From TrEMBL:
Signal peptide: none annotated. Pfam families: Glyco_transf_9. Coiled coil: none annotated. Keywords: Glycosyltransferase, Transferase. One of its GO terms (cellular component) is cytosol. Gene3D superfamilies: Glycogen Phosphorylase B (3.40.50.2000). One of its GO terms (biological process) is lipopolysaccharide core region biosynthetic process. This is Glycosyltransferase family 9 protein. SUPFAM superfamilies: UDP-Glycosyltransferase/glycogen phosphorylase (SSF53756). The keyword Ligase does not apply.
């Protein structure tokens, strides 16, 4: 009913681009951050607008340098989507890189009536610039680089943009030790991407074998702060600590910036560490599709994969200690190199 073909047009003549990023998380946003800088650098004639969640608006406006940010709540009604499309007005190109667009996405794009729609859902008629098959298996940052290529930018700088906050960094430094530090993030999205105490304990023990003088900073989220404080006490506060004042993703960025190295499960911290060029050990579940799109883009990264259990269930805690040790050996080898 709403999937009507876009009229199309010459991308060289595009003057206004709208990116739909209303479901983008912090990691997704960091991975695509260079798109805005490079488009601004090579096509200063283009107005760059973004739709995102309210809590992400500052990141796009102040740090990624977009012209206009439109906020959209998590579950907008059809009436609200129509009103949003009316507020945005005429657009030459919409970029929506959701793999399989839902009815509300399709309805919203229908209301926009943009000349061109660029997307990964090749099955839709309204997506006249189809990136699905063309970028299949590529890292998500490369999908955005491909979009830049289509806009006439052949060799974009794909370095991520990481915002800085000197005041928050000074506050964190008040709790920072004088020794070298490895930041360890045990928390990803969903229970299958969260390290339990036994896995964290094993990692801390293995780190101690290679770097006995280093301390481990256990990273937390507001809802895991008490658990992490308990873990630090049980693991020995002379070796393991957490930053009590850390509350936001910006604090997490500053912790990574202050750290000498990072260990993280598959989450935003992986991309933050990659963007800050920190030695990184990434812990991933065996998911070839996810890894090809969201692996760390860094020559300083080492990855270890958790195995599926006997029931075929994925969980980052399903890693043999020998696999951890081998990964850490390679990891610290890169740091020395």
């Amino acid at each position: 009913m709403f999937d009507k073909p876009s009229s199309g047009g010459d991308l060289a003549q595009v003057k206004r681009v709208l990116l739909v990023r209303w479901d983008a998380k912090i990691g997704d946003s960091i991975v695509s951050s260079f798109f805005f800088r490079e488009l601004r650098r090579f096509r200063p004639d283009i107005c760059i607008d973004v739709i995102t969640a309210p809590h992400m608006a500052t990141l796009y406006q102040e740090h990624f340098g977009v012209d206009n940010v439109y906020c959209c709540k998590k579950r907008p009604s059809y009436a609200e989507l129509k009103e949003l499309a009316s507020e945005i007005g005429a657009v030459d190109l919409v970029i929506h890189l959701g793999k399989h667009l839902k009815m509300k996405d399709i309805y919203f794009l229908h209301c926009l009536k943009a000349s061109n729609v660029m997307g990964l859902d090749d099955d839709l008629n309204m997506v006249n610039i189809k990136l699905g098959e063309a970028t299949k298996g590529r890292h998500f940052s490369e999908k955005f680089a491909y979009a830049l290529n289509l806009l006439g930018i052949s060799l974009p700088d794909c370095q991520y943009i990481l915002p800085e906050d000197g005041e928050r960094r000074l506050l964190i430094q008040g709790e920072w030790p004088d020794s070298s530090v490895i930041a360890l993030n045990p928390y990803g999205s969903g229970s299958s991407r969260r390290l339990n105490f036994d896995s964290v304990s094993m990692l801390v023990e293995q780190i101690g074998k290679y770097k006995p003088a280093w301390q481990v900073c256990l990273m937390s989220t507001p809802d895991t702060k008490l658990e992490v404080e308990k873990w630090c006490h049980e693991l020995g506060e002379e070796r393991v600590f957490t930053v009590g004042c850390a509350e936001t993703i910006q604090d997490a960025i500053e912790i990574v910036r202050l750290s000498d190295a990072v260990i993280s499960v598959d989450t935003a911290i992986v991309h933050i560490a990659s963007g800050l060029n920190k030695p990184l050990l990434g812990i991933y579940n065996e998911d070839e599709g996810n890894f090809s799109e969201w692996s760390p883009r860094s020559s300083l990264a080492v990855v270890v994969f958790a195995r599926k259990d006997s029931g075929g269930i994925q969980n980052v805690n399903n890693i043999e200690s020998a696999d951890f040790e081998q990964a850490l050996k390679s990891y610290f080898g890169k740091m020395i190199g």
